[in-house]
Specification:
The chain is mainly α. It has eight helices and two strands, in the order ααααααβααβ. A two-stranded parallel ribbon has the order 1-2. The relative contact order is 0.12.
């Protein structure tokens, strides 16, 4: 619980600092927390996890984290793709997903999945950039 509180405080400090440095830019920014995005529609979240698994060969999914040979690695990679989908925004908005290097490979898999998904395009959603 203390770690979660400290991370939350650090996040708020970061956002406050960004607002102080670039207030006009921050007016155009929407910050979403991963847990809020996922919990807003958990049923569709898990459907997304399953659909991503169906759309990519196991080797592509395992390549997201080649050092981890556990089955949980496959599920974790699929969940990372579904996490990115939960952040999808209309194509009129630029979507940027910030990630540590360990998650960047899975998020690039997400961008590939989104770019090849007709349903994603028909919904008018933007393929997120990975930073």
């Amino acid at each position: 619980a203390d770690d979660r509180k400290a991370v939350g405080m650090a996040h708020e400090l970061l956002l406050s600092g960004m607002a102080a440095i670039a207030p006009e830019e921050m007016k155009r920014v929407t910050v979403m927390r991963q847990s809020e995005a996922i919990l807003s529609d958990p049923s569709n979240y898990w459907i997304s996890v399953i659909n991503v698994g169906r759309a990519h060969p196991l080797d592509s999914i395992r390549a997201c984290d080649p050092d981890n040979e556990q089955v949980g690695q496959v599920i974790s990679s699929l969940m990372t793709v579904a996490d990115a989908l939960a952040f999808a925004a209309p194509s009129s908005h630029r979507t940027l997903v910030a990630a540590c290097p360990a998650h960047a490979r899975a998020l690039r898999l997400a961008a590939t999945y989104f770019g090849s998904s007709q349903a994603f395009a028909e919904a008018g959603l933007a393929v997120p950039a990975v930073a």
